[in-house]
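Q: For a teaching handout, I want to show students what a protein-ligand complex looks like in token form. Below are the inputs, and the small molecule is BES. Please produce the holo structure.
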Amino acid sequence: MQFSTKALSIEKVRTGCVIVPVLAGREFTAGGALLDTAHGGALKAALKSGDLEEKAGATLLVRTDKPAKRALLVSLGERREVSEKSFRDAVAGAIQAAGALASDDAVSLLGEVAVAGRDESWTLATQVLVGRAQAYRFERLKSKPSERALRPTRVVLCVAKAHTTRSHTTVQRAVAIANGVDLARDLGNLPGNVCTPTYLAHSAGELATEFNLRLQVLEEKQMAALRMGALLSVSKGSEQPPKLIVLHYQGAAAGKAPVVLAGKGVTFDSGGISIKPAAEMDEMKFDMCGAASVLGTIRAIAEMKLKINVIGLIPTCENLPSGRASKPGDIVTTMSGQTVEILNTDAEGRLILCDALTYAERFKPAAVIDIATLTGACVIALGHHRSGLFSPNDALATELLEAGRESADPCWRMPLDDPYQEQIKSPFADMANVGGRAGGAVTAACFLQRFTKAYDWAHLDIAGTAWKSGKDKGATGRPVPLLASFLISRATRG
Ligand code: BES
Ligand code: MN
Ligand code: ZN
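A: Here is the structure, written as tokens, with BES included.
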């Protein structure tokens, strides 16, 4: 689905389908009113029939013949003030209905809608991002992918003449983010027998080639030489070799401190010897969505040529039981020198991340953000709408909260104060890898915090937001929009 922007005389536009917003009280925007007049009042008449529901996203198709073949009326809800949610619902409804038509192209007037607290740039970017998310399919592993091409293939977003250059940039950036989201979704949706640590390293290689990025992939031997005992303790039950992917995006001066994005890349989490129950265990193929979001974000910022330095750091392995696997009670030494008693082999994410976080010190980073499907407890705490945000740094936390709000990919700050550290004390090692059921998302973050003293750090627990279960099962691509928005602000701030 391709997007472009144009300032058009809508009453003259030849297209298979014009998407026409309908505001509360059956009102049109300026462009909609012109179109209605050009078609002899056919649109008003259709509305009078009462066939268009008032609910945001409801649609009604009107045949208009010439110059536009059809008008697709879409409701923005019953309230005068259009909320962000109503607008997003309207875009999704319109793209879905347009997709069922025989028309290859569409012209959208949705950019004319005034959304409370938002400008035209926002309505344009939102059309791209919601439209692309609505059109996303993952069918590459079906023997017969659905025959119908994805429609509409081309969407023209109408803009006011004065704004064409700025609008063009806005849409380009939104397309870059949508491409990053799609990459993260594709990688997440791939099954564990395809998307192995080696496959993730190959995908990083493809990105590196396409955007001319520097890539290092550390192998097991190098990790051993670095004394990454925690990371290796997770991977050793598996036949698949672990990888530590280091992907460098340089968009600013070489001396400028980078932002490090560290993503958990467990390509399948069975729990190891502390094995998980069978029900829904398939969903643990999504346990590399943090890694996928790092690759997706780097894809997005590379495509927009953002003026910032970013390093993607991905520890990736499988967590499986075997005769060689770690056992509850085992004690390992991390790269930092701190020792960990592994009380539960299913708390593996923190074990691979802690060594990556120590490795991150060498980059003298401006900030490190780790992204991980870390705890079921975070899903219990926050559900599926907001990712968990943990950081001892108020300024960094505020930036990430704001980026989440801006990109409709929200997070929520969780506590991280010292009393929780008590729960991960161990009688035999410097710490245990679990702290009991109470506050499980917090104690996991507390564990990571012990490896992040050398820089500004934040942790995003995306266990509830990275994928959906049930009939719409699949990766969401979150938090690529949040991270992209965060990096855009940092790049602009300089
Ligand atoms: N990958 C899981 C977290 C997870 C579980 C995410 C369910 C989404 C849905 C993680 O490795 C894990 O197993 N965590 C354990 C930690 C526990 C053993 C302290 C959990 O959350 O149960
Ligand atoms: Mn686990
Ligand atoms: Zn896991």
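A: Two things your students might notice: The longest strand covers residues 309-319. The pocket of zinc ion (ligand 3) is lined by residues 266, 269, 287, 348-349 (CB under 6 Å).
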